[in-house]
Amino acid sequence: MATSSDIRKGLCIRYNNDIYKIIEFLHVKPGKGPAFVRTKMKSVTTGKTLENTFSAGHKIDDVRVETHKFQYLYNEGEMYHFMNTEDYAQIQLMKDILDTPELMKEGEVVTVLINTEDGAPLSVDMPAHVILEVTSTEPGVKGNTATNATKPAIVETGAEINVPLFINEGDKIRIDTDKGQYQERMKD
């Protein structure tokens, strides 16, 4: 058993007869009244998000998990196929439990959280950033350099990302997987 002070991003807990993964949290200590933790959780079975507040010292039932490196192979509709990089065992996961499936390209290595009690995969953690090639975007107009102006671009995985005006087709860009936002253009 853990308490609300142990809450951190990525922690898996049992709540309302389901297993949830903490996506965001904020410890709040108001000037008046007791401290509490405001959380945003995602169900690992249904993919639905839920916001909840735990009072300070509240007991939470944490789930023991192991992390394993898996390589993304391909997807068939809603099913995504992964291979364990150590023993080459393959697993299939529903699209709902993936955080940003549109940013995964084939061959990407991800971390899969596995419940130690029953061996079931709980969630997939993407790397902090991915480098993808821009496949289509409007050409930038010379002289159109307003501050923080962006345009939509389609990357090789099919995801649409807002990028600065100077990005062209064929450029490789670094994308923050947490927010799904452009970070920088990569040098060749």
From TrEMBL:
Gene3D superfamilies: 2.30.30.30, Nucleic acid-binding proteins (2.40.50.140)
GO-annotated biological processes: peptide biosynthetic process
MF terms in GO: translation elongation factor activity
InterPro entries referenced in this protein's UniProt entry, alphabetically: Elong-fact-P_C, NA-bd_OB-fold, Rib_uL2_dom2, Transl_elong_fac_P/YeiP, Transl_elong_KOW-like, Transl_elong_P/YeiP_cen, Transl_elong_P/YeiP_CS, Transl_elongation_fac_P
Domain Translation elongation factor P/YeiP central: 67-122
Annotated ranges, domain Elongation factor P C-terminal: 130-185
Pathway, per record: Protein biosynthesis; polypeptide chain elongation
One Pfam family from the record: EFP_N
Key words of the record: Cytoplasm, Elongation factor, Protein biosynthesis
A GO CC term assigned to this protein in UniProt: cytosol
Keyword Protein biosynthesis appears in the UniProt entry: yes
Record's keyword annotation contains Chaperone: no
Record's subcellular location: Cytoplasm
Domain of life assignment: Bacteria
Job of this protein: Involved in peptide bond synthesis. Stimulates efficient translation and peptide-bond synthesis on native or reconstituted 70S ribosomes in vitro. Probably functions indirectly by altering the affinity of the ribosome for aminoacyl-tRNA, thus increasing their reactivity as acceptors for peptidyl transferase.
PANTHER family on file: ELONGATION FACTOR P, ELONGATION FACTOR P (EF-P) FAMILY PROTEIN
UniProt record similarity statement: Belongs to the elongation factor P family.
Protein name: Elongation factor P
